[in-house]
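Weekend entry, working from home. Most of the wet-lab plans are on hold until the incubator is repaired, so I used the time to fold the two sequences that have been sitting in the queue since the last round of cloning. Logging both here for the record. First:
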Amino acid sequence: MTKDMTVSRRRLLKAGAATAIGVVGSGLAMPALAAGYPERNIDVIVPTREGGGADRNLRSFTAIWKKYLDTNFEPGFFPGASGRVGYEVYMGKYEPDAHSLIFGNMGPEVLNWVVKKPNFDIDDYIYWGRVDTDPGCLFVGAESKYKHIDDVIAEGKKRKLNVGTSRLAHPASIGMLALADKTGIEVNLIPLSGGKKTVAGAVTGEVDFSVLTSGSVAAAGDAVKTLLVFNDKNVLGEALDNAPTMNEQYGTDLPPMLSSRAFGIHKAAVDKYPDRFEILESTFKKVFDDPEYKAAVLKAKGHWEYVNYGGVEECAKFKQAMLDLGEQYKSYLTGS
């Protein structure tokens, strides 16, 4: 990643002010710590490939956020092991000084810790800035013989169906397993490593159909057709072919199977630099009220209906819900 170390006049003035304040007395030491923050660009580790939904989401958000934080964001993409590689890199190689963040998909990536514990304590980082909530869905290629979810179930009564998913440990995968339990069909989940490949698997017929976050499916346009949504309501309507929800179709009470992209940070950085963290939080919140953010989301073919702010409390609640859900379906997600 290329570092742009150009120092603005305003940043030099802020740094000078920090020095002046720092020597006045220990009682003002805390404000002095944040006076020049951020001192350099912010590194953002993304545990997926460049060019996918997380990338589009990140760039739309940071394009506006940099106006308020007065710095640039430098994404680094580290795909592999269902997101595990990116987290290992972030936790193992970046200093906890609030100049680096991780931009994760809380749904599948937290489920991954249930399948196999990482090499770090999962409480050593926290999610604190939620950008969206994106429900999973079931979809087929536009040329598929399956035109309605009932066609899928009917075929599943005859044979085991091959189902593409971006990662085995994924909320959409759990939605599929719950559907199989409800209808009595058998499925073979096939992780295709990422959203693009999961869409391609359905379009080419490599798999019978796929499950994925619905935002990525809607972005695929006419190449696919959505047959079922794992949410309380199909809020995108025609963009998801007016597909019914699982609860509507089968009378179930399945909770929304959501992916949720959010920024995370080392817990040690929050503890050591609470003033810096406060700046991150306050500037982050400003983005949602900026009309340029909505324009950026729509330009990137995102869906404003899924954009919603969440702070530390909301993220912690979501993280725990994923851990609980993962334990419930652990045997399915691990293949044991």
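Second, folded right after the first finished:
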Amino acid sequence: MDLERRDFLKGAGMAAAAAATAQAAPAAAQPKPVYEIYAAKYAGPFTSKLAFLLFNQGWDQDIDRYYYIWVVKGPTETILVDTGVGLTVAADRKLKGYVNPVDVAARIGVKPNDVTKVVITHMHWDHVGGIEMMPKAYPKAAFYVQKREYDFWTKHPVAKRKIFAGTADPLAYKLLQEMEGSPRLQIVSGDVNIGPGLDIMLGPGHTIGTQSLAVTTAKGTAVVASDCGHLARNFKEDTPSILITDLIGWMETYDKVRAKASSVDLCFPGHDAGMLLNYPKVAEDVTRLA
């Protein structure tokens, strides 16, 4: 009987150990969702000298630029990158070719309850102003902004100086401040994962707290970089625009963005005409990037 009891205890112990090992073993890694990325042009074209967007190169060359938001469609949710320009500022500035960004996104079937997250890359008027419409248009969406960016534009006295005020949107800042403290405004610090295959990356340079969104796609990891680079040439030629807050930080941001993306061709800039002209058109003023 003692032998039988020992065998029983030994067997039970081995079973318990196996169960404990199974519990301790990490679960098999789940594959990341694969997202599609669309560029949605809501205004433009606008013409300036190339040197405006490629640091001091091409003062004798004209170049067109467009204003976009980006739609990131996944299996279960839709994420927007940037909000575009609000209706009020678009009217005040008589913005050429302006269409409400919400209406442009709707051209590819984006419905109000589809949008769960909106990543505001920085708080210049042409990227944050759509906060005038989007909280109501997308009732389930949370809005993500970097703390250093938010604090600068809403609280720092230097932000009111002429050099910064020209790119500001006081109405948008007021509306964001009204959301502060609620779950709808997510003020983040640094690099943050916001879901499988979705990584916010801090990338100062253009502004004090510019951020981008790295996204898993069928082509590899893409970075919706917005004004981390105004043109694709900025990433490829390692040269920013002349709209600089921190030049050293910006050069380090280029290293970071290019290292994250599977290729430099998957670093999508903020105002490049090529995103509208050189990718498959899926609706009026909307192209599929990845």
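Plan for Monday: verify the second prediction. The chain has one domain: 36-288.
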